[in-house]
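Checklist before submission:
- one chain only
- standard amino acids only
- sequence pasted in full

Submission:
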Amino acid sequence: MNVNDPYAALRFREFNIFLLVRFAMVFAWSMQFIVIEWQVYTITKDPLSLGIIGLMEVIPAVGMALFAGHIVDQKEKRNLLMKCIFGFSVISFGLFILSLPSVLETYETKTILYGIYTLVFFGGLVRAFLGPTIFSLIALIVPKKIYPNAATWSSTTWQMAAVLGPALAGFSISLIGVHWSMCVIFGFSLLALTALFNISRKPILNPKIGEPVFESLKEGLSFVFKTRAVLGALTLDMIAVLFGGAVALLPIFAQDILHVGSEGFGVLRAAPAVGAAITMLGSTRFPLHKNAGKKLLLAVFGFGVCMIVFGLSTYFWLSVIALFISGAVDGVSMIIRQTILQLKTPDNMRGRVASVNSMFVGSSNELGAFESGVTAKLMGTVTAVVFGGTMTLLTVGLTAIVSPGFRKLDLQKDIDEHEK
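Returned file contents:
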């Protein structure tokens, strides 16, 4: 098989089913988050309640991540993914029940709110297992020599679902209301569960079944911190999201700086996702695995520059272009990072490494929003975004100097080895 074939991974039937499952789950999850936010704010009119939603999900997702990775490496992946999707289906059905008009009329607002928070918390537990399981399953569906192509299609599918889910949520709430929107979400989870039956059970490649938990976790963390390519990729992504993300401050830019209202806010919010989606589709024809280290460093550097331009811009069109390009280069970063993780991680350690990755990315997203809010409060909105972009540039420069091996990283050699 030609590894440069842009459709190499799509020639495997199970991988196509996997993409359907992943699209349905990411679509349902991202749509559900928007619908929950709308419902909670509608019944409370309290902005703090929106922050609690994120907190209820991120605490179990990050807190359980390492333990989840250990479990994933010990269990059969297809069946474990079924359990994750079934858990999500139960949660979405529970939210469907809580949004029934009769339930809303019968119970107090506080009772409904606590019920939603509880289900979101259990959703965070499911999320802790879902990411590592999906990451591990890909490697058992396609040959190693086409991991880069598979990672590209998987990331593209994720990006498309993450864009379309929230978009449909807004229309759905307007057209059919919160209750039936939750029914749509439940339907997508059932679609994912049904499709997954068409993927066969996979072998467990971990030779240390029954290994004590703490020894297992120690081995996984040790691998990440000893493998410079993996550690470098995770660190760059974490720093870029932590310091360079301006998404949390977009409402301020739309209302008080660019004066473009809710319509302009929607365009600003969509611009990075559109850029990332275009990059990911293009990378299926123009692979990024050659000179991957340099490309990743340049991508994160470009992201930092875009954040500085966006922060300083007072023109709507320039701000949109800066966000669009930031999404495009972030797409490059995401694909290369996923490819590095797929190629460099041993089969028996995929769950644990993916869990560490989810901790880096998941925690940095939440902390990034917090950092943006705090720095905006202390420095001012524009200064906060420029500061974040500058910190991203400094991190790239430091990584390039301290880790010349990462700068020279070329994944083509790993692919050639897998072809032999």
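Reviewer check: The CA atoms of residues 62 and 363 lie 7 Å apart.
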